[in-house]
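Re: beginner question about structure tokens

> Can someone show what the tokenized structure looks like for a real chain? I only ever see the sequence side.

Sure, here's an example I had lying around. Input first:
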Amino acid sequence: MPPTPFGSTAVRTVRTALLVSGVISLVIGLLVLIWPGRAAEVVVAIISVYVILAGLVNIGIGLFSRATGWARIGYIVLGVLFIVAGVISFANLGAATTWFGTFIGVLIGILWIMEGVVSLTTVSDSSSRTWTVFFAIVSIVAGVVLLFAPLLGAVTLFLLIGLSLVILGIVQIVRAVQFGKAV
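And the corresponding structure tokens:
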């Protein structure tokens, strides 16, 4: 076997990094596919923890910074609102997850409609007018459909992300096994 361009330590380090990232991706993808509702709740729980921590930071800024007057009060009020939102999310994790999924679905629907409209405005500048118009129509229709069923769209997107993570995880694991071997 010819020598590798990297030292053996570097090869082991890269191989380990590829393997660990592949296994993490595979496990998370499988969790999303097997328990999509629970996995979505975990994501919302992580966001809720972040929101509570952001609230504590804002309160800290309001109490201990050099801010004065309304700035100080604003930080404290913002911090309290963040904490209340995080606690409410934790208390109603299922409802918060549904709301978050619906919000994401509506947001993507609006963005797809806007993308389609913007594409239509560039038809005259495009060298492939037919494909541009086709893309714009599909984007607008998909956006409208998503606006009428935003939660279904968000769930579908979440499952596609899970499937992608499984595939990418497997590929990354194979890369880890193959990394550093002679071609």
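Each token stands for a local structural state, so reading them left to right follows the chain. The chain has a mean pLDDT of 91.
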